[in-house]
Amino acid sequence: MFFNNREYIYLVWQDDKNRDFYVVGQLSRNGHYEFEYTGEIDKATENGFQLLLPFPKRKAKYKSDILFPIFSSRLPDRKRENINEILEKYNMTEYDPFVLLKNSGAKLPIDNLQFIDPIIKVGDKKIERRFYISGIRYQNECQGVECDKFKNVKVGDKLTLKLESDNKKDKNAVKILHDGESIGYIPRYYSEKVSEFIRKSDKYECKVLEINKAKNCNECIKAELVLNK
Q1: What whole-number distance in Å separates Cα of residue 156 and Cα of residue 82?
Q2: Residue pair 8/34 in contact by the 8 Å Cβ criterion
Q3: CATH class of the domain at 127-227
Q4: Range with the poorest average pLDDT among 135-149, 169-183, 204-218
Q5: CATH 3.30.70.2330 residue ranges in the chain?
Q6: Confidence (pLDDT) at 158
Q7: Which residue, 5, 54, 3, 49, is CA-closest to 31?
Q8: 64 - beta bridge partners?
Q9: DSSP codes of every residue in 19-82
């Protein structure tokens, strides 16, 4: 996402216990790279997040001419034999580490960190985002073992959105409905901007993009959301 001639992506951490997402950092690029912690860092550290070793100060802004090694190390090597297949998977034609972080998420099994393409502004142009639907395990009480509860959900199915302002965990919560039945929520890192858009416009499209019941409940249904101008 570009804003004021800088390109931004957010670093998100997920709490193991409550499964909540926290935007803990902001990485940007415009001739050089900058990283800084964001407003949710205090809540995240209260819930167990530890500051990254190369960035020990909460209020500092860190700069580099190259992508910080702590982030580039999460990416496949550009000399990897099947690198072109990997780039194609993420709709890329050339190796750009910043774009690869954004498009792939750079999620590793060793921690609960991932990068996301933020929604910084809404209403000025069409915005497309893909994400895993949050809260499926709890919303449908499947507990990760009763996947037949989703036997009627198919790739390509239309989804609708509904504001849930009385949600105690997130005042900007946006519920996702399939055939009128709730199946989960917009991830919290997108909920504020999506709820802002929904309050002003109903010009959106949301559909089921992928279903993988073999994965954990946090990544079993991926959706695509388009917010139209």
Answers
A1: 29
A2: no
A3: alpha beta
A4: 135-149
A5: 127-227
A6: 97
A7: 5
A8: 33
A9: --EEEEEEEEESSSEEEEE-TTHHHHHHTT----TT---TT--EEESS--HHHHTTSPPTT-TT
Measured CA to CA, the distance from residue 80 to residue 83 in angstroms comes to 5
Q: Given this model, what pLDDT does residue 104 score? A: 93
What's the whole-number mean pLDDT along residues 48-55? 97
Give the pLDDT of residue 136: 83
On the question of pLDDT at 75 being above 80, the answer is: yes
Counting every residue, how long is the chain? 229
What's the CA gap between 217 and 142, in Å, rounded?
Answer: 9
pTM equals 0.87
Sign (positive or negative) of CA dihedral 122, 126, 132, 136: positive
Q: Residue 111 in contact with residue 101, Cβ under 8 Å?
A: no
Judging by beta carbons within 10 Å of its beta carbon (0-12, 13-18, 19+), is residue 137 exposed, middle or buried? middle
